[in-house]
Design brief:
The protein contains six helices and five strands. It is of the alpha+beta class. Strand 2 and strand 3 form a beta hairpin. Helix 5 crosses helix 6. It is elongated.
Length: 157
């Protein structure tokens, strides 16, 4: 028998259950993240991904505002598109291929809200944004670490 968790709304979670810690304590701070610029070349991004062993990065404008995310999958898409269309190797820019409509979290989100977001999404990591400015990033593994530190008696059971 498969267990399917009941996903509760924010209002249901707040009704009588203990308050949970903010995700801020568990996220990777912005200054520790590798971020990219919209005008960087995809070749440069691929080199960064390989060298730093990362699979994606937030894209920031000159004011540190989040304008998108680019992933290794986006880079692979470019390679396949160029090969399929028999295009000469061009210098595409991050802005041409990044995802602009980025799902984000707020520093006000707590651990349970973040876990719920990850359950309802195939995304493995999300930027944490305050007033449009990137302040960090939280991943599924960060939320699992947070859950381990929360006493089992606070899970409402």
């Amino acid at each position: 028998m498969n267990f399917k968790p009941e996903i509760k709304s924010k209002e249901q979670l707040e009704g009588g259950l203990p308050k949970y810690e903010s995700i801020v304590k568990y996220m990777v701070q912005q200054h520790s993240l590798i971020t990219l610029k919209p005008d960087q070349s995809i070749n440069e991004v691929i080199n960064i991904f390989i060298e730093k062993r990362i699979s994606g990065a937030p894209v920031l404008d000159e004011n540190k505002k989040l304008v998108g995310i680019i992933s290794e999958k986006d880079c692979l898409r470019i390679i396949v598109d160029q090969a399929y269309h028999n295009q000469p190797h061009s210098e595409p820019k991050v802005a041409d291929y990044m995802t602009r409509n980025v799902k984000t979290m707020s520093p006000d989100n707590n651990v349970v809200e973040a876990a719920t977001e990850f359950l309802n999404s195939p995304i493995r990591r999300m930027p944490v944004v305050e007033n449009g400015v990137l302040i960090g990033q939280v991943s599924r593994i960060d939320i699992l670490r947070a859950a381990k530190s929360i006493s089992p008696t606070t899970w409402g059971g």
